[in-house]
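Reviewer comment 2.1 asked that we show a complete input and output for one of the modelled complexes. We chose the iron/sulfur cluster case, as it is the one discussed in the main text.
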Amino acid sequence: MHVVPLIDIKSLHLDELRRIAQPSYRGGQIADWLYQKRVTSFAEMTNLPHALRTKLADNLCFGKIEVVRVLGSKDTTRKFLFRLSDNNLIESVLIPASPALYGSPSDRRTICVSTQVGCAYGCKFCASGLDGWKRNLRADEIVNQIMAVEEESGERIDNIVFMGMGEPLANYDNLLRAIQIINAPWGIGIGARHITISTSGLVPQIRKLADQALQIRLAVSLHSASDEIRSRIMPVNRKYNLGALLDACRYFTSRKKQRITFEYILIAQVNDSDEQARQLAKHARALEAKVNLIPYNRVEGLDWTQPSIDRQKKFLAILRSADVRAALRREKGDDIAAACGQLRLQTERGLAAPALESTG
Ligand code: SAH
Ligand code: SF4
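Response of the prediction step:
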């Protein structure tokens, strides 16, 4: 009799599927059912012997995430709210082909994926951390966000950013396991260069990731160019200060031979001064990093505001005049990725739904 909880089949790698499903070529057939044909039950895997299907069903489960709400419509950014098997809510955002995001060609459809329920890092401007941290997502729950959004939207996703709810690098093992499934030719098959992890700056994990073979991209949420301000808005900076973070970024750049991206939310009168821009330019230049400026996105219950358009442009101009590759994210949809976590918060707190709600 089984007493251990069943493992979700979409958490497993091909070699693990092969081990379970002797002879080993059966493992490849299962992966084909899962990621090419996209069946949702063992019974549908009709080229497997009945005994094997029974064995799989006895040992593994078939998790599904349920779509609760979809906001937005085709050709615009769409937000998907999902309910997990334990009733927790998470969200993913589908950003249509057009704005060039994170080094990817502009014709790519990007999904912004969550990695945790809530977030323990408590950045002062962010909706995801407001209600604290609940749990890590399992690898299958990360993979299923992509598959569910593809199924709901009928679109093929070819670019992934881990910028949804949670701190991806605080869920390192499940994240890496999921990325391997997303990246593998037998899995979803998205190239590592089209996968970006965003982190608030977990130094040991950035170094660990740098030593990992996959050419995944890294975005670092900097949000301030000095320790004093950064510690005020991002508590993680008290543990890993700017010096340690920039060192880890340098290590990452040297190992991966690729540029990282600094994300920088512009918050009025907090981090938007000329002096901050100049310091940011210095850090970015030293690492040849790109900078994405994101005007602060209002969060219910928080007092921060975004700077005037003029201030935003001035900040950008300072970076550019220092030869930093920088962009100001203004187009609709760019900021919605950053606003991840807000939909869940609204739903859980029973707040009004945004006006753009569609029936899906
Ligand atoms: N925890 C990771 C990834 C998720 S947050 C990280 O912090 O990088 C993804 C991005 O959204 C981060 O750059 C984050 O700082 C930004 N963000 C959070 N709240 C925001 C808001 N209200 N307006 C704009 N960007 C926000
Ligand atoms: Fe967590 Fe990132 Fe939000 Fe900070 S910005 S609270 S690390 S999700």
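The mean pLDDT is 89. We note this here for comparison with the apo prediction described in Section 3.2.
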